[in-house]
Amino acid sequence: LERKWPSLVKxxxxxxxxxxxxxxxxxxxxxxxxxxKFKDWLCGSAQSxxxxxxxxxAPEPHNCRVGAELGGFSYVLGLRSLSTxxxxxxxxxxxxxxxxxAAKGTAEFHSFFYNSSVGRYGGDVGAIQSLSLxxxxxxxxxxxxxxxxxxxxxxxxxxxxxxxxxxxxxxKIIFNVLSENGLHESA
Length: 187
Fold this sequence. Notes:
Elements (H helix, E strand, L loop, with lengths): L4 H17 L44 H24 L2 H22 E2 L4 E2 L6 H11 L7 H14 L14 H7 L7
Antiparallel strand pairs: 1-2
Helix pairs in contact: 1-2, 2-3, 2-4, 4-5
């Protein structure tokens, strides 16, 4: 870990710089790096995650942001990991810095990706699982809407006969997130 620490810091600081400069871009929010847009490949079938029409009232900018959201999700997870590594290495100030940035990114994640006009992450019904599960994993939804987000995922699963509508990224977290939120039967 000591040997790789400088490289990890350099990579992470580049993402942080991207997040800090994002405030000037109307499609991003300061405090959240979304530059690594790997998407959630497959999304359960050969179709794209974003094939369903947006529900009435879903503003176009929130229609489908799977790539940006998964970039933000990875950013928050990366900051949390770096904070943990810094603690193991005894780098107290780095531990605090990366922990604070992860908390800021988690809050910004909700602010940027939650679509209050339709009451869920994103606007596209084809991406409910791919957009909501990462938010639940990092604890992004505020306490007052957290149960609603869990319920939305459960309803989506039931509506499509418990078929996964996620890709490679979200498939790694879906079962744990469902179980951690009381949806054991769905998992």
